[in-house]
Design brief:
It is a single chain. With about 90 residues, this protein is α+β, with helices and mostly antiparallel strands. Helices cover about 25% and strands about 40% of the residues. It contains 2 helices and 5 strands. A 5-stranded mixed beta sheet has the order 4-1-3-2-5, covered by helices on one side. A hairpin with a 5-residue loop joins strand 2 and strand 3. The longest helix has 13 residues.
Length: about 90
């Protein structure tokens, strides 16, 4: 089975619409580990680790986001899997 780590930055109306909470819920449902946080510039930054297909499913979900979000752009950096996380968390601060 292939594993993947991906850093994702989501641009658009993505803060103030529960993007982080819905991302955590979706990632937990898929079994993807990592974290999500708001960035002061108005973007949302997430790091996903897990089975490659599930991480790709999370990236696809981020292109739409939750109801109320208006995603304009998603920047993706794929990296070698590290297996660094035990769960998916919302992070606060930078």
């Amino acid at each position: 089975m292939d594993y993947l780590r991906a850093q994702v930055i989501i641009h658009g109306l993505v803060q103030g619409v529960n993007f982080r909470a819905y991302t955590r819920s979706q990632a937990t449902a898929l079994g993807v580990k990592g974290w999500v946080r708001n960035i002061p510039d108005g973007t949302v930054h997430a790091l996903f680790e897990g089975e490659k297909k599930k991480v790709e499913d999370m990236i696809a979900w981020c292109r739409q986001g939750p109801y109320g979000a208006r995603v304009m752009q998603v920047d993706i950096t794929r990296e070698p899997y590290r297996g660094e996380f035990k769960q998916f968390d919302i992070r606060y601060g930078i």
